[in-house]
């Protein structure tokens, strides 16, 4: 019931590109066949309207827990940020033949910045995507994590090439 594509087509396209993205249908369609089709196409959950907000939040948390359990997906493709090649499935990066061990959260920070290359990623986005919606952040938690990560991946700490601070807003990776 969306204007261009229906939810089933969108689900198919997302699953074709990335089998790990959590998908929750929220639909007015209440027939069993509609729910079964959505789940068979790869949705993680199917919520029928009307619904309670607390129920939706609980279902999002449940799907998120399932999707994040066990670390990075074994087939997470490597990506490149400047002169750093990141291997999410191995929890490491490589620069000029040197291996750099990374934590799951550090890989997630780099992946988020890579996905948003050229755009500022604000603090709320970092906290919501990497710590979860129910996390009450310490004002320095993200800054400390970024500082620690910069030290690990920096080729020249005086002029960071990968993680740039955008004062008052967040952080940015310029690409390249």
Strand and helix layout:
Elements (H helix, E strand, L loop, with lengths): L6 H11 L6 E4 L4 H9 L4 E4 L4 H16 L10 E3 L2 E4 L4 E4 L2 E4 L2 H12 L4 E3 H9 L9 H13 L10 E3 L3 E3 L4
Parallel strand pairs: 1-2
Antiparallel strand pairs: 3-4, 4-5, 5-6, 7-9, 8-9
Description:
The chain is an alpha+beta fold. The protein has two domains: 7-68, Rossmann fold, CATH 3.40.50.2300; 79-172, Winged helix-like DNA-binding domain superfamily/Winged helix DNA-binding domain (Arc Repressor Mutant, subunit A, Orthogonal Bundle). Helix content is 40%, strand content 18%. The protein has helices spanning 7-17, 32-40, 53-68, 104-115, 123-131, 141-153, and strands spanning 24-27, 45-48, 79-81, 84-87, 92-95, 98-101, 120-122, 164-166, 170-172. A four-stranded antiparallel sheet has the order 3-4-5-6, covered by helices on one side. The model has no long low-confidence stretch (mean pLDDT 84).
């Amino acid at each position: 019931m969306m204007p261009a594509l229906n939810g089933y087509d969108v689900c198919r396209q997302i699953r074709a590109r990335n089998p790990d993205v959590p998908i929750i249908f929220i639909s007015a369609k209440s027939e069993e066949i509609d729910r079964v089709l959505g789940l068979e196409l790869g949705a993680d959950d199917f919520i029928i309207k009307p619904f309670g907000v607390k129920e939706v939040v609980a279902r999002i948390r449940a799907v998120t827990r399932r999707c994040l359990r066990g670390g990075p997906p074994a087939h997470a493709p490597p990506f490149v940020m400047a002169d750093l090649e990141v291997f999410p499935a191995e929890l490491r990066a490589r620069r000029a033949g040197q291996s750099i061990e990374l934590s799951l959260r550090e890989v997630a920070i780099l992946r988020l910045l890579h996905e948003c290359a050229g755009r500022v990623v604000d603090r709320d986005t970092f906290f919501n995507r990497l710590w979860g919606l129910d996390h009450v952040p310490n004002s320095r938690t993200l800054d400390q994590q970024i500082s620690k990560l910069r030290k690990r991946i920096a080729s020249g700490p005086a002029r960071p090439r990968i993680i740039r601070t955008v004062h008052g807003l967040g952080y940015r990776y310029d690409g390249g």
